Amino acid sequence: MFGARCLLRALRSCTSAPCPRHKPSARLSVRDALGARSTNGERVKVQGWIRSVRSQKEVLFLHINDGSSLESLQVVADSSFDSRELAFGSSVEVQGQLVKSPSKKQNVELKAEKIEIVGNCDAKAFPLKYKERHPLEYLRQYPHLRCRTNALGSILRIRSEATAAIHSFFKDSGFVHIHTPIITSNDCEGAGELFQVEPSSKIKVPEENFFNVPAFLTVSGQLHLEVMSGAFTQVFTFGPTFRAENSQSRRHLAEFYMVEAEISFVESLQDLMQVMEGLFKTATMMVLSNCTEDVELCHKFIAPGQKDRLEHMLKNNFLIISYTEAVEILKKASQNFTFTPEVAAVDLLVPGVGELFGGSLREERYHFLEQRLARSGLTEAYQWYLDLRRFGSVPHGGFGMGFERYLQCILGIDNIKDVIPFPRFTHSCVL
């Protein structure tokens, strides 16, 4: 007992005594460093990639970027540092004092005490050149490097912010997020543009199916959301979808992301339209607020004029025409017009992109669905879908929004391949 008390007193005296240690440099992102309110010479550490190097007789200027912001952090170093190793594209770790900058172009700068080269870059062989604004078409040749440019960096930061904004809208609106499966036995769209999933070992045993039924990569989460709408009044999903379309157009991808929602107890298309418009405007306003510099870069250098068009969309109500209304317009325009049976559906079309939203009220009449499935020979396969109408069915509807097309719309990006990190399309699956 006596020994334990002595040990406890010794520990207390150790913990209470001051320990004269050198305070390590605080690690800051470039964004946090640029936004620092206090510049009293605090020692910090910044890691990133060199965007520019400028050498003078007694001073060396570097601009460091780590992807956290469009703006780079200026580093001021003594000319004694070997500028030959500090090349455009090299990765570095810089330690020094964060001080107020005498230049009006930036609020703070980093006065370097130590610069460590983490990874060298041969600037001459590097396909991205300093101070050169490469066209997006050129950058597509380098999917593993293009994220290092200002243009793609801005687009990808906006994409990240838009993802958060969409989730925020649905959460604030009371929706439950559902993770719908990527592998499915259903062809929701019915267009037959499916990627079939098979194990690589199937070559050895071709007569077997891994899941006992043919399985495909999903083209839509709608059917799974309809299942969930029997227990939750408002649900949404946000994930990858796949279409085996033989197309290399500027509006199509083989792999893309879809935002889909399903709402129970809905009997009017107008109710769906309000959610669609609310999603677009709320998410876009959040992106514009949180990614001001990145959006301005896109509107200024990639799509001049898009800023005015976007502001017009945000200030005015959408002109959303339902399928029924479109049929009536076309009937009046041409007496020879033939059309399919009318359904309660709605699309949102935007200039330069085409269809952005597509939604409809779902068919909840059990006997009508039963007859249609029987005529198509699908009763057994879709018995579960009939069960949804047998047990506590309610009127419901939903919509889907192509996420990449949404980014095209708000930024004015002409080709959909430039708003996704790694585009997948016919004859192209790089990385």
What's the helix and strand layout?
Elements (H helix, E strand, L loop, with lengths): L1 H15 L9 E2 L2 H5 L5 E16 L3 E7 L7 E6 L12 E10 L7 E12 L16 H4 L10 H23 L3 E2 L5 E2 L11 E2 L17 E3 L4 H7 L5 E9 L12 E10 L4 H22 L1 H11 L3 H10 L5 E2 H11 L11 E6 L3 E8 L4 H11 L6 H8 L5 E7 H9 L20
Parallel strand pairs: 1-2, 4-6, 7-11
Antiparallel strand pairs: 2-3, 2-5, 3-4, 5-6, 8-10, 9-10, 11-12, 12-16, 13-14, 14-15, 15-16
Helix pairs in contact: 4-6, 4-7
Walk me through what this model shows.
The structure is a single chain. The protein has 431 residues and is of the alpha+beta class. The chain has helices at residues 2-16, 30-34, 136-139, 150-172, 222-228, 269-290, 292-302, 306-315, 323-333, 366-376, 383-390, 403-411; strands spanning 26-27, 40-55, 59-65, 73-78, 91-100, 108-119, 176-177, 183-184, 196-197, 215-217, 234-242, 255-264, 321-322, 345-350, 354-361, 396-402. Strands 7-11-12-16-15-14-13 form a seven-stranded mixed β-sheet, sandwiched between helices. α4 (150-172) crosses α7 (292-302). The protein starts with a helix and ends in a 20-residue tail after the last helix. Residues 10-20 and 336-342 have low confidence and may be disordered.
Q: Helical segment tally?
A: 12
Number of separate strands: 16
Helix content: 25-40%
SSE-based structural type: alpha+beta
Distance between the termini: 66 Å
Largest beta-sheet characterization: 7 strands, mixed
Going across the major beta sheet, what is the strand order?
A: 7-11-12-16-15-14-13
Rg, Cα atoms, Å: 29 Å
Specify the oligomeric state.
Answer: single chain
List the uncertain runs: 10-20, 336-342
Mean pLDDT, all residues: 87
Our estimate of the beta-strand percent is 15-25%
Which outline best applies? Answer: elongated
Would you list the SSEs in sequence order as H and E? HEHEEEEEHHEEEEHEEHHHEHEEHHEH
